[in-house]
Amino acid sequence: MTLAQEEAPVKHAIMPSMEVSWILRPLPSILAVVTLLFLMAGLRALSLGRKTISFRHRRQRLQAGWWLIGSSMISALLAIVLVRASHSPSFPLPNALPAQPSPLPSPTIALPTLSITPSLTPLPSPTFTPTLSVASSPSPSATPRLPLSLEIMILSAVTPLPSAAIYDVRFTQAVAGEYPITNRTEWTNPIWRMYVNFAYNNMTYGAQFSVLWFRNGELVYFESQPWPYSRRGRASYKWQPAMHEWHPGLYEVQFFVGLEWKATGRFIVRGEPRPPTSTLTPSPTRTPRPTWTLTVTSSPRPTRTPTVSPTSTSPPLTLTP
User: Tens of pLDDT along 225-247?
Assistant: First the structure.
């Protein structure tokens, strides 16, 4: 074998490695530009989200902003890893990789094939029975979080106690003092209002307290205000939309003290809501104008009374010669 024949495999092995090197070298610069673009877009989305009045648009823009900032951080980490790998002696970029020896054929060992015939036992079909526990225990994998748009609206500077607790959540349409008259987890239309009644403990006066109402996972109503009650007791919050807005589905009420979730209550609404009543607007009616009727009445003419005028009588004149 000649020397040219021995160098031929080495040349073929070096050429692909050089192509790979030219592809990997500009990647850190590209990732740096992408990081800058994502960061600028995320900051702009957060700025626009804080200025938006609409709750849904504000939440979407804030979520998009945080996603863009997170993507910029990921691309920045990738760029740093590639830069460090290019300058590390243990992980050099492939400038000239030696020719890899062809792998030796591995001996094949014929193993006996085991044929297993699976027997499928039909499982009983699961029946879904909604068990609505009025207060759920904290779960690290499914802990609700306060939406970002509501976090911005928190104005209270009072720090709540970590031991603050919300429990014994009940749903009713009427309350008597601090206690609900009824307690049900399933309601049938028509419904015109709903109270959520709950017990609380270790609450701090003035700490931010938020109640969020969800229908089938979508936020439909919320209240957020400083805590106005005492340290321990019971309280009720009411939601009273129009009767035609009580659509059937699963309703969920979440309680937050500050930014920390404390409890969740659920109930079901069945049946179609009452349709909205259309109110007739009275149309203006023209008031008839007064008509002028000319009535001619003839008044009797005054009767003339004859008047006697005095007549002067003069004696006749007699002429005497």
Answer: 999 999 999 999 999 999 999 99
Question: What total of structural domains would you count in the chain?
Answer: 2
| Overall pTM > 0.85 | no
Which CATH number belongs to the domain containing residue 249 in this structure? 2.60.40.10
Torsion of CA 60, 61, 67, 68, to 10 degrees: 150
In a domain, 111, yes or no: no
The length of the chain is 321
- The domain boundary, picked from 250, 270, 290, lies at 270
53, with CB counted inside 10 A (0-12, 13-18, 19+), is exposed
C-alpha separations of 294 from 6, 163, 228, 287, 289 in Å: 135, 92, 76, 22, 16
The label of the residue with tokens 């307690």 reads 183
Residue 142: inside a domain: no
133 lies in a domain? no
DSSP 265-288: EEEEEESPPPPPPPPPPPPP-PPP
Give the Cα-Cα-Cα angle 14, 16, 17 (nearest 5 degrees): 65
Range of the domain at 215: 148-270
Return d(Cα 54, Cα 40) in angstroms, integer.
23
